[in-house]
Amino acid sequence: MTKLIIIQHCQSEHHINNMSGGWTDTPLTSLGRKQADLIGKRLRVDILNEKYVLYASDLKRAYQTAEVIGKHLNLEIKIDKDLREINTGIAAGKTKDWANAHRNPRTEKGFNLDYREFPQGETWKQFYFRVCDCMERITKSENHNYIIVTHGCTLAFIVAWWLKYDVQMLVSSYFSASPASISILQYKENYQQNVLKSFNDTSHLKDFGK
Predict the structure, then answer these.
(1) What is the pTM of this model?
(2) Is residue 210 part of a domain?
(3) Which residues contact 209 (CB under 8 A, 6 or more apart)?
């Protein structure tokens, strides 16, 4: 394995209709489909003659983004549920207003790894370990490059996994990317380093805004 291209899913209905994120399963908007098309066109040029395996979260907004990209690259999608966003438990399928009214209260300042935002959901620590286990499983073959289509917080934790973060390091740092962005993780053989080559690249969206 030498390269991981991480895609944050494109604009979804939950971005514009006051629905909560997490495990709420909303499709792409028409703009989101245009954004996915631009990503596919960009990658078709950028990774010409390179071989990749395409993975995606099973939630519609990620899977539909991967569908469009896959058509441009002639790649089939491998679905992995563990690439989902953080599990929001009872808030899945609810509006943002409902979620705000039913969120578990925070009892301390700062980022608490053991905080469970909603009943039946994950803590941040559980989420991080789920993402790490998923990426270790997906990338077990050293003979593949990967395109991973996923969600905002999942992307942040994939970057942390790649950079070999201890879980406690998440308390004081975070990688915040944008919908329809491209981030590239690459292994530098001569120094044996895991490199964050580029992050949150949205230059391909210039015709539709970022």
Answers:
(1) 0.95
(2) no
(3) none
